[in-house]
Amino acid sequence: MDNTTLIILILAVIAIAAGGFWYYQRRRTEQLKGRFGPEYQRTLNEFGDRRKAEYELERRVKRSNRFKIHDLSSEQSNRFAEKWRAEQARFVDEPRQAVIEAHRLVNEVMKARGYPVSEEFERNAEDLSADHPVVVQHYRMACDIVARQERGNVNTEDLRKAMVHYRALVEELLGVRVSQSEEVRR
User: Fold this and answer.
1) pLDDT for res 185
2) Are 149 and 159 spatial neighbours (Cβ–Cβ below 8 Å)?
3) pTM
């Protein structure tokens, strides 16, 4: 084999390896975008670098795979749905307390499902994002309002929005509609 043939062969192997790597990276990106939806873009914006953002999202998936996430029994779902309805009704007379209790209820449902809920909000949001990437934005927005409430920086409309965000999350975690007027299994 002469040098020219060897060089061409080496270049061909390098080109195939580069093409394979490019294909792998593209496929990985598409899978992560498909799994995380809007959370993919939020994480990309946060990290400012595609590789770092994708590494973070893959870390979340690996972490969540270690959890024993499970559906709730129908009794548990019904009990949590009733608690939600009570907090929703309380909102009329005690909006601030209702939002605080809604926050506690969401964390209680997450724990019951198997999520390792901690006092660290961002960790909870990351853990939730691996399985519920669309509604995790509701969790982020509601928790932001609760944090502002603790500083005394919210009005009744903000509190109403927090309840709407928490309701979306509760419905996703329970798999049932929890509005006052109807309860329909999804």
Assistant:
1) 34
2) yes
3) 0.74
**pLDDT tens figures, 125-156:** 888 888 888 888 898 899 899 989 988 889 99
Q: Are 178 and 82 in contact (CB under 8 A)?
A: no
Residue 126 belongs to what H/E stretch? helix 121-129
Longest CA–CA span in the chain (Å) reads 88
Q: Which residues of 16-51 are buried (b: 16+ CB within 10 A; e: fewer)?
A: eeeeeeeeeeeeebeebbebbeebbebbbeeeeeee
Residues 107 and 73: their CA atoms lie apart, in Å, by: 17
Burial class (CB in 10 A: 0-12, 13-18, 19+), 152: exposed
CB 96 within 8 A of CB 149: yes
For residue 112, CA distances in Å to 14, 98, 119 come to: 51, 20, 16
Cα separation, 136 vs 132, whole angstroms:
6
